[in-house]
Structure formats: C-alpha cells, structure tokens
Amino acid sequence: MASIDTSIYPHATGNALKTVQEHSAGDVDKAELVFYSGWFCPFVQRAWIALEEKGIPYLYQEENPYKKDVKFLEKFPKGLVPGVLYKGNPIAESLVILEFLEDAYPQVPLLPTDPYSRAQVRYTVDSVTKSVLPPFYRLLQAQEEDKRDEARQDLYKGLQKFTEGITGPFWAGEQFTHADIALLPFIVRLPILEAHRSFKRTEVGHGFEAYAERVVNIPSVQRTLSDAERYEEVYDRYLRNETQSEVAKSTRAGRILP
Questions:
Q1: At which of 47, 71, 104 does a domain end?
Q2: Domain presence at residue 154
Q3: What is the pTM of this model?
Q4: Maximal CA-CA distance, the chain
Q5: What percent of the chain has pLDDT over 90?
Q6: In this structure, is residue 6 part of a structural domain?
Q7: Which of 63, 90, 102, 230 is the most exposed place for a label (fewest CB within 10 A)?
Q8: 41, 44, 183, 184: the active-site residue
C-alpha cells in the first residue's frame, strides 16, 4: 500500500498543467535553466511565479520529494524542491532562487531599484518566513482546539504585520516584488484553513481581503495554480497531522522551518 505521502497526485492540473506542457520539451543536459518542481509545494510556487512573471525560458521537471530520483539527489542531496539547474549548476531554496533569478535575469525586475526599498522588501520576506509561515503550519496541523486558537491568532498577527506595510496595489506600491511572492502561495492555500480551521480573512483587516484577491489573479500566479481539490487532497494529511514532510516534522518539533 502506498504511504500517505508517496501516494500524492503525480502531476499538476488545471492552469498549472497547461504551463507544465508549455515547458516540458527539451533536454535536461542542454537547457540553460531546468526547474525541478513539485506541483503541490508552496515553496516551489514562489520560484515558479518568478519564472513566469519574468518570462524566463525554462525546462520543467516534476519531482516527487517522497520518491526521490537518484539523478535528482545527485544534484540536490537534500532532496527538496524547488531546485534550479543553471548551466549545470544546482541552486536550492526558494528565496535563494528568487534572488538568483533577479541577478541572472534582470528583465522584469522583482525588486525595487532603490537600495532602501530593496532592503524593506527583503525585511518583509524575512518577516513572512518568521511571522506567517510558522503559525500557518501550526494551525494546519494542530489537533487540539486550544492550540488551533493560539496558532490562528498568531497567524492573524503575522498577516496584519504584512498588510500594514502595503503601499499600493502590491506590497511595495505599484511594483510586484519578492514581498508579494513570498506570501502568495500561502494566500492561495488559505481556503483550506477557512474550510477546516475557522480562519477568517476578514479578521486580518487593513485591506487584506482586497489585496489577496488582487494578487491571486495576477496572470503569472494563475499560470501556476492546480485545481483546488488537488490541494485539498495534499493538505488533508496535514490537517490530520500525519504527513512526513520536512516542514511538518519541523512544525511538530517546534523547530525552524527548513
């Protein structure tokens, strides 16, 4: 019998499947940039949004991190997605990949040109990592009501901190940046918390509802979205606190997310 994680749906669906099909023709050994992905992963979606927003040519490779391919592990020993192979050189970690893409492909910039504004965007990305993601996963996995209540309130606070800094249609004003991309995949997955964990985005306030609706409908984001029911299937194992993903194990242990 397949384990709860290895039985994951094998490929993207919906809009994301169309995008995958557009980027699947090619030779891994000849492509300038190979994108190793797991369609279901929010950290993958960060890098994927940036690739699409910038219009970077890439070869898509689906990897199930629960059934790790030997050749993939040779390039990425941790076995985690996303991964980028650039001219044969491996680059891992979603936020590192965002910075790399900005340096290697400066067209359609996703960071402000002003040094101070760039620093503020990076500070906000760090804040998402520290103030939003941990309570997001704690709320997702918590089985006791008191722990859910605590995580829910902490998530509201983290999202409020983010939203208070928004200065226009996007976090940095008129420009779509890494600050938006860092949070976006988790906005996409909020309906799961709304359906199963009594999360209410109205509780965030500060225009969060309008912001969330706006950024989710950006074309580059839409092109990375699979069907909602497939996300539900993946996160059902988180809701039961049974998944063995590295993020889930870190959340259970109270450790920093990998």
A1: 104
A2: yes
A3: 0.96
A4: 55
A5: 91
A6: no
A7: 90
A8: 41
